Amino acid sequence: MKGKSILNNMVLLVLVLLCFNGIVHVNSQKVPAMFVFGDSIVEVGNNNFLNTLAKANYYPYGIDYNRVATGRFSNGRSLIDFIANMLGVSSPPPYLDPSTTGSKILNGVNYASASGGILDESGRHYGDRLSMGRQIQNFQNTLNQYKTMMNPTELNQLLAKSMVIVVTGNNDYINNYLLPGLYASSSNYTAPEFANLMINNLARQMLALYSLGLRKIFIAGVGPLGCIPNQRATGLAPIGRCVDSVNQMIGLYNTRLRSTVEQLNLDHPAAIFAYGNTYRVFGDILNNPAAYSFNVIDRACCGFGRNRGQISCLPLQLPCLSRKQYLFWDAFHPTESGVYVFAWRAVNGPQDDVYPMNIQQMSVA
What we know:
By secondary structure, the protein is α/β, with parallel strands linked by helices. The protein has helices at 2-20, 79-86, 132-147, 152-161, 170-177, 185-188, 191-211, 229-232, 244-267, 278-287, 336-348, 359-364; strands at 34-38, 108-110, 163-167, 216-220, 272-276, 296-300, 303-304, 311-312, 326-328, 354-355.
């Protein structure tokens, strides 16, 4: 059985690399629309329209995206761009862009906002941001627009067949719980209590999306944040090691999230909720980077200080040249090569990667 597992992993890895290098193409449209909620991992420019320090609307962000900084926190495409392509739909436009109206919203909308989290207070030191609560309110505004464009039956079918991607929870740790000088959460809650607080809030938010008509909801877990350049730069772990205490906190949250997804499916058999095992996918890359063509996993491609993670990528800074070989783009975010691996495995991977079914299976269910 162990040999079969290794073989399956090797086949999966070959497919991931072939797809990223453009040898395997995805064309057919599998869902009518995508709706995206979350943080900077899936943001495509909402924060460009907010009074916030959390922006990526300057070069070298976008250096590999036609050399245009769009607000994506990446050297190139974002996680959502890849998932959208694999589902055969256009990457949804940012909600706050004034041009996101009329026919432009028919294939979905992206509500994600850098520094926003599950909890309203997370990321407040950056300035304005769209928390999950505010993103859901904005989705309701989109629904009101749809009601002027189609009849109730058409709208219900659109919502039921559309794919929802939720990537959140990261800022509740790195821009809340892990900043005791700015937030009281680590004093008020133990790590298990904080994980429960997050899960209880997120469960209510997912039920709100369900109540508004959405039926196919993919929820990504939190990755090994103790391994990002920002956390390695704290000096809380030996050189070359991740901050284990942070990763242990993340483990508590992810375990509860997976259980919550199971319960949501039991309680709502007409819907499909799926848990994306972000931690496992990035753990695989960190444990065996050469297999994924990475050779730098402990420091950022663009940034300053220890591990290039103490100060994130600044305007006009010269980034590393071998960007495809770096797992991390800046202090907090993977390169487009890094997020591609997760995108592919979220869409096509086995239950160890995404449970109880992958996004491809959800799209045809």
